[in-house]
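Incident review: delayed structure delivery

Summary: a single-chain prediction request sat in the queue longer than the usual turnaround. Root cause was a stuck worker, restarted by the on-call engineer. No data loss occurred. The affected request and its eventual output are reproduced below so the record is complete for anyone auditing the incident later.

Affected input:
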Amino acid sequence: MTPTMAISAIKVALSGAAGNIGYALLPLLASGCVFQDRPIELRLLEIPQAIKTLTGTRMELLDCAFPSLVDVVCTSDPLVAFDDADVIILVGGFPRKKGMARKDLIQANTSIFTSMGRAIEEVASPDAKVLVVANPANTNCLVALTEAYSIPPKNFCALSFLDHQRAKVINVCLSRSIQRFCLSNSCAFMSTTTQGQIAHRLGVAANRIKNVTIWGNHSETQYPDALTDGHYLSDKGKKVPLKSMLANDLEWAENDFVSIVQNRGKAVIEARGNSSAMSAAMGTADCLKTWLVSGTKDGETVSMAVYNDQG
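Output delivered after worker restart:
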């Protein structure tokens, strides 16, 4: 009988781990939602004032008894958190405060992500993958990768996956527009017996909306594009272009839809009094899983902010 080799634990570092996004993300990482059954060692990084809170989070993670969780390290030192790390998720950043100009926000975060990039350069695995979540994510990511010059730029990514998921769901919720298309064209890709059945199908079929694209920064300047390559994937594998399904609502798709996605984060804050945490955590987990574990299926695309060296 040939002995099986033990699978080495993947070392995952998370900055801003005591925050709301970190609290929602950690169970997804520890439970195997992202890296499946591979053993995982978590390195949790926070400012010194938040270490006590982080210690409580560590207790909860251990109390969950996740089978894949090997160890949890809490630290305020990025050199400890990033030491030989395979995956680094940068959630911690300087938040935008009332009356703060965007240039001031960028300046404050440039200092933070310069130090993060330097620590990554000094101690992280030479093939480390880095996902930046803290806003302004694209700018922060560029600052970090510039400092971590030994690590390939392709190993850095800023989070656009949350906007990608938002765009998919908002498209799915257009049940009346899609119903009209289906009923008037006797679509073969799903039953048109009653409008209710179609609406019910669309209500649970967010994963059937494919290839919606987010162009630009994670900000109000982004451009969510549902029409260029977006399609509905039927149970039988038939691709139905969203441009055709939304033929009677192109004005909405090119204007209102874009504005809704651009301002979704602001709407969440107005509704719950806090910024997106659960959805941001899920978008982060989905991005990591797609990028590092599962990949995309043939013909399928996702939205990721990556380094452009082509000008």
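Verification: The chain is about 45% helix and 15% strand.
Action items: add queue-age alerting; document worker restart procedure.
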